Amino acid sequence: MEFLKIDDIHHTYFTKTSAVTALSDVSLDVAEGEFVSFLGPSGCGKTTLLSIIAGLIKPTEGLVELEGKKVGTKDNEIGYMLQQDYLFPWKTIEENILLGLKISGSLEKDKIQYAHDLLEKMGLQSVEPLYPKQLSGGMRQRVALVRTLATEPKLLMLDEPFSALDYQTKLNLENLVSNTLKSFGKTAILVTHDIGEAIAMSDRVYLFSPGPGHIHKMFHIPKELRDLTPFHTRNHEAYTDIFQSIWKELESIEPEDKY
Hints:
Oligomer: single chain
CATH topology of the largest domain: Rossmann fold
Radius of gyration: 19 Å
Strand content: 15-25%
Strand order of the largest sheet: 6-7-8-3-9-10
Helix content: 25-40%
C-alpha cells in the first residue's frame, strides 16, 4: 500500500455560464518520507491538485487516499504552508505556533514543549513574546512552518512558500526546511514555478501540462543530488543537465503566445 495514492483525478469548475476543466486523468503515488514537486506553467492545475489532496476541494472524479483512507476523514493528518505566512498580527509568536493545537483540542504539555523545541531548532530562540511585525519575512515563514509541524501532520503541503522572499533568504529557508523534513522523516509535496527549487528539494519532479492540467512527464532526481542540501545541489555538475532537461520539456508545453 502506498502512503499517498492519487487515482484518476479529474476536476471541473462550474459556473452558471461555463465549465472549465482544471485537471484530467491525474494519477500518482507518493512513498512515506518522499519529497515530490509539482512544476508547470500557470493554469496547469497544480494548486487545484494540492487543494484536492489536502481535502479542501472534492474532485469531480477520482480518489485520494492517505495510508489507505480517503483524505479528510481524520484531523491533523495534513499540514499546509502557503506563500503568505498568515500569522495573526495581534497574537504573539507563541500564541501563533500553538494555534493549530488549540483548535484541535490537543494543547497538552508535551505538545507545547514540542512546539517550543521546534522554534529552537529553527533558530528562533526567545521570540515567543514578540509579534509577527517584529520579525523578518524569513523568520515569519519559519514560524509558519513551526505552527504547521507542531500538529505533527503526516503529510506536508507547500504551496510556493518561498516565492515572496529575497533570494538569499529563500536559499537559506530551502536548506532549513529540507533538513527539518528529512530529520523528522516527513512526506512533502511542493508546488513551485522554480525549476531549480524543485530539483534542489525533491526526490521526484512532476511536470504538468496545461489545458486541462495533466502529468506531462516525471523526473527522478539523481541520488547524488538528493544526498546534498538544496544549496549544494545547485553547484553539482549533474544539476545543470537535469535543469536543462526540465527546461526543454517546459518550453515544449508553454503556450506559443506566452510573450
